Amino acid sequence: MKLAMIGLGKMGMNMARRLMQDDHEVVAHDLNEEAIQQISREGAAGATSLQEVVEQLSAPRIVWIMLPAGKPVEETISRLSELLEPEDIIIDGGNSFYKDDRRRYEALQTAGIRYMDVGVSGGIWGLQVGYCMMVGGDEAVFNFLEPIFKTLAPKDGYLYCGKSGAGHFVKMVHNGIEYGLMQAYGEGFEILDASEFAESFDYAKIAHLWNQGSVIRSWLLELAEDAFNKSAELTDITGYVQDSGEGRWTVQQAVDTGVPAEVITLSLMRRFRSRQQDPFSERVLAALRREFGGHAVVSKEK
């Protein structure tokens, strides 16, 4: 099939490569002209504007967007809606909020343009092992696009999840679960590192060991092994942990539907805490202990 890939970052670039490896034709566009030139040298048709993208495709045109959620996606879809024709297809493969999908679906439907939301997981390893994809939108459009999903995914690695928004909703919850898993691994290794045995521990070997048939084996643990092999005590990085939105949306969804989600919620709060230096709340705690119990405090150096 022939399709466009809009956004040639870590995910979009490798997805374009995987598609071309299976003989799909790719028209590639990015604001970074060097990225366009790079993928063009590998066989893609480069396009320096959305107008050029549309001109190089034939009906029904398929445009896959791999951009950060929010304004970049909104602006791109708005411009594409002016360029595309009825029966053309826009796929948002980023991490958009599912309610935004439903709004876009309705707006584009009035123009006859098809809209699909595809939650994509796989990171920088997807080129080699494939991408797990969660698809929402019209099932007939899903069936038409299935050859693309088969190429991008490993065996059994894609699923039609339901109406518009369902794909990104499943991906949102997926990422919320990811928060909890990562937090549990982080806490576990911190307990190891604070123990009397820490001096003899090799954390890369422990991560490798736990992946050999144990009940906590996972790809995240494989990545932990890789990270510890690069830096045994992770001294090359700080503990600042960003979040891209899905964890917040998952927690809000839990609140809206009355579902207790303690682990995911606390793991999100811990990410917020990781970005603070000398947080005010901790100073309040120290001051209160000093006031009611005369406990010692650590004064700041002037």
Can you summarize this structure?
By secondary structure, the protein is α/β, with parallel strands linked by helices.
Annotation keywords:
8 strands; 13 helices; 8-stranded mixed β-sheet; 302 residues; alpha/beta
Describe the SSE topology.
Blueprint: E1 2-6, H1 10-21, E2 25-29, H2 33-41, E3 45-46, H3 50-55, E4 62-65, H4 71-83, E5 89-92, H5 98-109, E6 114-121, H6 126-129, E7 132-136, H7 139-152, E8 158-162, H8 166-193, H9 203-210, H10 219-230, H11 246-257, H12 262-274, H13 280-293
Parallel strand pairs: 1-2, 1-4, 2-3, 4-5, 5-6, 7-8
Antiparallel strand pairs: 6-7
How would you sum up this structure, described in words?
With 302 residues, the protein is α/β, with parallel strands linked by helices. 52% of the residues lie in helices and 13% in strands. It has 13 helices and 8 strands. It has helices spanning 10-21, 33-41, 50-55, 71-83, 98-109, 126-129, 139-152, 166-193, 203-210, 219-230, 246-257, 262-274, 280-293; strands spanning 2-6, 25-29, 45-46, 62-65, 89-92, 114-121, 132-136, 158-162. It has an 8-stranded mixed β-sheet, with helices on both faces. α2 links the parallel β2 (25-29) and β3 (45-46). The longest helix has 28 residues, at 166-193. The radius of gyration is 23 Å and the shape is globular. The N and C termini lie far apart (66 Å). The mean pLDDT is 94.
